[in-house]
């Protein structure tokens, strides 16, 4: 059975985009692959982002990301869950891949272009980000990688790096396949401007551990169909992000009711949002209650991360031994 690998950044509060786009997929694949599924909080990637690498918050955010994953149903006794920096082989393999990867290949990455356009000074680590991501995946010879659609280009580069290493040093790494969560490829931001993203700040996101009062305040003022000016105007749910959220949180009868009543002005936007909030509350309350239980017992979370790192290193160490030998490093 192929191994599964995916990482999630601790750059801010986990939001519903993370949840529907990745975290629920982790739980599903974990039930299918068991200990052959490896997930990690990629804190080394986080420090490539100057706005997210504040050392006062990095450890706490890393811990909170583990709490969030466990709260949504990921069982650390059934999968391998760990923190990236706790397994130093990630950095060692990343350096080898960096030396194999042309700068031009890294510079053409769309995410690199997008992020550098927002920075006055570009850290070299941001350019090398895809080489580290390739190391994350190939260190465990993973064949299945659950990712968001925005990571497709990075997975293609990972496959290219695997081919290049295999060509130069002998067959070593498989070429991994991306697996997408078809149910939620692109969750819109609550501000109505593109994809929900932590990089856009809290005004764009609905946190899965965010107080429900705060979630409601964001939904209450969230944009709807711009053509629906008055309560009596018919609306078009197909262009309304609130209807997109209904598809995630509401049951089928509610979705069908909103779809029909909005089009004939039988329901107003505020009432529609209140119905959505019912689904949000039902969905997030048990997650938030579980998170509170985990925060009350931090030793459980820390022990789980330590165990996960031990399990990950048991796989990573022999792979790096193989890589060192093939690259030609002198043995001790």
From TrEMBL:
Chemical reaction(s) catalysed: tRNA(Trp) + L-tryptophan + ATP = L-tryptophyl-tRNA(Trp) + AMP + diphosphate + H(+)
Compartment annotation: Cytoplasm
Keyword Cell inner membrane included in the entry's annotation: no
UniProt-listed Enzyme Commission number(s): 6.1.1.2
Residues bound to L-tryptophan: 136
Residue numbers covered by motif 'HIGH' region: 10-18
Record-listed ATP binding positions: 9-11, 17-18, 148-150, 187, 195-199
Pfam family, one: tRNA-synt_1b
GO biological process per UniProt: tryptophanyl-tRNA aminoacylation
Keywords carried by this UniProt record: Aminoacyl-tRNA synthetase, ATP-binding, Cytoplasm, Ligase, Nucleotide-binding, Protein biosynthesis
Motif ('KMSKS' region): 195-199
Gene Ontology CC entries for this record: cytosol
Domain of life per record: Bacteria
InterPro entries: aa-tRNA-synth_I_CS, aa-tRNA-synth_Ic, Rossmann-like_a/b/a_fold, Trp-tRNA-ligase, Trp-tRNA-ligase_bac-type, Trp-tRNA_synthetase
Molecular function in Gene Ontology: ATP binding; tryptophan-tRNA ligase activity
Family the UniProt entry places it in: Belongs to the class-I aminoacyl-tRNA synthetase family.
Subunit structure: Homodimer.
Record's function text: Catalyzes the attachment of tryptophan to tRNA(Trp).
Name the UniProt record assigns to this protein: Tryptophan--tRNA ligase
Organism: Deinococcus reticulitermitis
Lineage: Bacteria, Thermotogati, Deinococcota, Deinococci, Deinococcales
Gene behind the chain: trpS
